[in-house]
Amino acid sequence: MPKFAQRMSRAKPSAILAIAEQARQLKADGRDIISFSIGVPNFLPGPHVYEAAHKAIDNDSGQYGSNRGDTALIDAFLGHMERLGLSGYTRENVNIAVGAKHILYNLVEALMDEGDEIAFPTPYWTSYVDIAEMLGMRIKLLPCPPEQDYKLTPQQLDEALASKPKIFLFNNPSNPTGMVYTKDEIAALADVLAKHPDTWIVTDDIYNQMIFDGVGYHNFVQARPELAERLIFIDSLSKTYGMPSWRVGLMAGPKDVAHACLVLNSNHITSIPEVASAAGAAALSGPQDVPQAKCAELAQKREVVLDALAAIDGVTCPRPSGAFYAFPDISCAFGKSHNGRKIENDLDLCAALLDTKDVACVPGSAFGEPRAIRISYTCPTEQLKPGLERIQAFFAELS
């Protein structure tokens, strides 16, 4: 029998989606599951987005789309970038793909050869490791423990870039921690990046509209404009606009990088559908009342989560200022038992929490930090406090 490609031995399904699927199955079986697992925003876009989609259906061209992306969507994205303070980009700097994950996959394919090194902070989004391993890259992890608020320091970055990794991948706001870098923190890291010209910089900033506390969104090119010649900015409609199933990912960077992704699109997907493009353009250029209201709602939910976690003895959680995640250190539970069941690690804890309290969370080890769990607090408001109370009860029953 013919064999699979060797890379498939390195390919793994998403740990997050596996847990979310388990929770869905238990709920279908009649269990009262409250899921804090998957990172979906759990709201829908405004009516103007659906109107644009219906109009696109009514005016279907019957043609293939552009490998770069629909012009109206690109222009809407450029306007969005201007509002973020990212100026100087043109249509030739942009490429559109099937979600931010596809953008990232294209970039790794376009910029790295097998065996090249990619560096990124820990905790990390699970797909960073999965994509890098599948494509045969060497991974340099930069540990950012809760003791330093899950944030990368300039010294760490300087030491990591000394080995000249091909890509430095940076996520702000962060999934899984919800941490957001301040303007000064971004400027300090940008100064280090400017000293190391042999490394591409990829900023995965898909939560840039979900930032609280007045921290604001900041990018390295704002602090050091010369970095624009090797920096690629990734964005998505999934989180900000409640559009994960529309699969619209966007990137802006050097023209030759955007062209390389265009070439890959021409062989991978040709283009994203007209309907998704029209909906995306409407989302980016139309009224922003829905995402603004949801951001305010998420900030309030965050306070509920942090208050509940603060009431659990031994649990600590650096204060997130963005996205919709909390990433508490729950290692105080290790070595204890719950109703006779030993809790040795984050996997044990999440399994016991789901089995005994019907609450689904993602183990921190999926993100490279086994002392923590990820809580995605976008569940319906009426489920938030009951779910947190179940977590409190679980810890209270440890012995």
Name the descriptors.
399 residues, alpha/beta, Aspartate Aminotransferase, domain 1, Aspartate Aminotransferase, domain 2, 2 domains, seven-stranded mixed β-sheet, three-stranded antiparallel β-sheet, 14% strand
Brief characterization of the structure:
By secondary structure, the protein is of the alpha/beta class. It is built from 13 helices and 14 strands.
Task: Describe it.
By secondary structure, the chain is an alpha/beta fold. Strand 10 (336-338) and strand 11 form a beta hairpin. Helix content is 40%, strand content 14%. The longest helix is centred in the last third of the chain and has 22 residues, at 289-310. It has 2 domains: 6-44 and 290-396, Alpha-Beta Complex (Aspartate Aminotransferase, domain 1); 48-285, Aspartate Aminotransferase, domain 2 (3-Layer(aba) Sandwich), CATH 3.40.640.10. The protein is globular. It has helices spanning 15-28, 47-58, 71-84, 100-111, 126-134, 154-161, 183-194, 220-223, 255-268, 274-285, 289-310, 346-357, 381-396; strands spanning 34-35, 94-97, 117-122, 138-143, 167-171, 200-204, 231-236, 249-252, 325-326, 336-338, 341-343, 359-360, 362-363, 373-376. The mean pLDDT is 95. It contains 13 helices and 14 strands. The protein has a 7-stranded mixed β-sheet, with helices on both faces. A 3-stranded antiparallel β-sheet has the order 9-14-13. A two-stranded parallel sheet has the order 1-12. Helix 2 (47-58) runs antiparallel to helix 10, helix 4 runs parallel beside helix 5 and helix 11 runs parallel beside helix 13 (381-396).
